[in-house]
Design brief:
Layout lengths: L6 E11 L5 E10 L2 E10 L7 H12 L6 E7 L4 H6 L27 H13 L4 E5 L5 E2 L2 E5 L3 H10 L3 E5 L7 H5 L6 H7 L4 E5 L8 H18 L12 E4 L5 E2 L4 E5 L8 E2 L4 E6 L6 E6 L4 E6 L4 E2 L4 E10 L1
Parallel strand pairs: 3-4, 3-5, 5-9, 7-8, 8-10
Antiparallel strand pairs: 1-2, 2-4, 6-16, 7-9, 10-18, 11-18, 12-14, 12-17, 13-16, 14-15, 16-18
Helix pairs in contact: 1-7, 4-7
Bound molecules: zinc ion.
Cofactor: Zn(2+)
InterPro entries: AstE_AspA_cat (IPR055438), N-alpha-Ac-DABA-like (IPR043795), N-alpha-Ac-DABA_deacetylase (IPR053138)
Keywords: Hydrolase, Metal-binding, Zinc
Length: 325
């Protein structure tokens, strides 16, 4: 950067080319401060139905005091235009039959499948950054939280700066359970970036498809506090009471297919004990109860599905094991 200039640019970039020859593009916002400083990369909507991240970045754009910025912020509000247009989590087979979930293939491959190409283009921005905030939202009713790699203290500090009440550590590599490997979690942007030594977090800003004011506000304040923590903006990050828990890969899942009625009075964010009733899956025609779901551990209930039509194996609830309060 030239001295004493502060700029915002919005650049349209090509992520990949579709079979028809149409370019798949997105917009990358770059904010350069007058003073030197670190680079923050943030993106939203890899999973296109997770639109609270996109709304968070729009409001962050409005509120960012560019005149106070030292360093660079790179923001991508729609990282995956394909899933955004489909209001979906993954892409249909026609677009990427090999890697339907974009958040399993980082750092991508410019000669690979469509999602791999898209990730490879964005990775050129990611790899230049000093910190990563990859904005997501959960699919069921979810308590907002921030995920970081367990044992990675720089990522933990970034998560603490973002400031949600609940921080969830996730075990990786050799420490991770079999499910982490089976589900390809090593290919998450957060995990791949942390592997390169870039502190990296995933805020999960409540559930999807709806703009939720509280979750968006938490996202904007979180990004501004991350900027203060990194020295991109002046000011201190306030001290907070945060609970550290380990996320729950082996969630409580439905034993049968039917309608799931959550236990009345249960709210995400509350402490529950092992054996707490979570709800009932029942046969909608005969009313026969198929599964009386209970918590398989004591901890914080951070997700409880409200999408009542479930098939066997669907996630009903997630309970995080408390590590530090
Ligand atoms: Zn997501």
């Amino acid at each position: 950067m030239n001295a004493n200039t502060r700029t915002h640019t919005a650049e349209e970039v090509t992520l990949a080319t579709l079979p028809s020859g149409v370019d798949l593009t997105t917009t990358i916002h770059t904010y350069d401060g007058a003073e030197d400083g670190p680079t923050l990369y943030t993106q939203a909507a890899q999973h296109g139905r997770e639109i609270n991240g996109t709304e968070t970045l729009r409001r962050f754009h409005e509120r960012l005091p560019l005149e106070e910025l030292s360093g660079t912020i790179v923001a991508v509000p729609v990282a995956n235009p394909l899933t955004f247009d489909l209001v979906s989590y993954i892409t249909p087979e026609e677009f990427d039959s090999v890697n339907p979930n974009m958040n399993r293939i980082w750092p991508g491959d410019e000669d690979g499948s469509l999602h791999q190409q898209m990730a490879a283009r964005l990775w050129t921005e990611v790899s230049r950054a000093d910190a990563i905030v990859d904005l997501h939202t959960g699919s069921p009713d979810m308590y907002p939280h921030v995920v970081y790699r367990e044992g990675d203290e720089r990522s933990r500090a970034l998560a603490e700066a973002f400031g949600a009440d609940l921080l969830l550590s996730e075990q990786a590599d050799d420490e991770a359970p079999e499910e982490w490997h089976r589900r390809g979690f090593a290919g998450k942007l957060r995990v791949a970036a942390a592997e390169e030594g870039i502190p990296s977090v995933t805020p999960e800003l409540a559930h999807n498809k709806q703009i939720l004011e509280d979750a968006v506000e938490e996202g904007v304040e979180g990004l501004l506090d991350v900027c203060r923590y990194l020295g991109l903006l002046p000011g201190d990050v306030p001290a907070r009471d945060q609970t550290i828990a380990r996320n729950h890969l082996g969630q409580v899942t439905a034993d049968g297919s039917g309608l799931f009625r959550p236990e009345p009075g249960l709210e995400v964010g509350q402490d529950i004990t092992e054996g707490t009733p979570l709800g009932t899956v029942y046969e909608p025609r005969t009313y026969e109860p198929l599964h009386e779901a209970v918590a398989d551990r004591s901890g914080i209930l951070y997700a409880l599905t409200r999408e009542a039509t479930v098939t066997a194996g669907d996630q009903l609830a997630s309970v995080a094991l408390v590590r530090e309060e």
